[in-house]
Write a structure and sequence with these properties.
single chain, alpha/beta, Rossmann fold, seven-stranded parallel sheet, globular
């Protein structure tokens, strides 16, 4: 966790998919900048550990166990966060929860497609809609959406997964155009290859993943993406970085 800087003090941030990887690193980074954190994931013990780490460093955090793809779970998360927030507002929402799927349209497991769309597209869209409604009323706020370079440059090795990230990127841009006149910022963050639990859950192996990315050299750690998210939400209110791509230097494609 970063040393407390305090420039986000008084703000409440929500991070989904916070039990590991980019979500966990982002929660710690925002807490280090003074924000109060509401963190959501399905693995409650991991969330409790994250909350304890934030509190040991002098921060404030709340764990909300839940499924980011479930409509009632999204609503419950927002309501819990609002009631817990010292100001009664949500200042930062990071829609990070998602999963991958190895293989293209022909080779990926079609039985997993519906779950992928439910979490990566519909779950994110519901969170964006609800937080956007609140922030329009507040006339301020930051919504950060985790996309992927595979959503901008569709790869045959992750074609169906890439389609979900293509969709959520379009939703983020549509939302930005709706809410920007009200002082609300929307940012799409598109990471390249990041080493985390993501690959194992997605079904990537040494054969279908490791050998392909070996030529990239040193890959990203979740902290690199968390640093970028903190920078995006720390800019002056009139400045909106609406898209940012972060790749390992050696990653030429996607």
């Amino acid at each position: 966790m970063a040393e407390q800087s305090g420039h986000l003090t008084g703000k409440t941030a929500v991070v989904t998919g916070a039990s590991a990887g980019i979500g966990r690193a982002t929660a710690l980074e925002l807490a280090g900048a003074g924000a109060s954190l509401v963190v959501q994931a399905r693995r409650k013990p991991r969330l409790d550990g994250l909350v304890s780490e934030i509190e040991r460093s002098g921060g404030r955090a709340l764990a909300v166990e839940g499924d980011a793809g479930d409509e009632t779970g999204v609503e419950a998360l927002v309501e819990r966060a609002l009631s817990w927030s010292a100001s009664g507002k949500l200042d930062i929402v990071v829609a990070n929860a998602g999963r991958g799927l190895a293989g293209g349209v022909l080779s990926s497991d079609a039985a997993a497609w519906e779950q992928l769309v439910r979490l990566n597209v519909l779950g994110a869209a519901r969170l964006l809609r609800r937080s956007g409604q609140l922030m329009v009323q507040q006339k301020a706020g930051d919504i950060v959406v985790l996309g992927s370079v595979a959503g901008r440059n569709i790869s045959p090795y992750s074609g169906f997964y890439g389609s979900t990230k293509f969709a959520v990127g379009a939703i983020a841009e549509g939302l930005r155009r709706e809410v920007s006149p009200h002082g609300v910022r929307v940012s799409l963050v598109m990471p390249g290859t990041v080493l985390s639990e993501f690959q194992g859950v997605a079904g990537y192996t040494e054969e279908n993943f490791g050998n392909n990315v070996a030529r990239f050299g040193e890959l990203l750690q979740p902290q690199a993406v968390a640093d970028a998210i903190l920078w995006v939400v720390s800019l002056p209110p009139h400045v909106n970085v609406s898209e940012i791509t972060i790749r390992p230097t050696g990653q030429d494609y996607p």
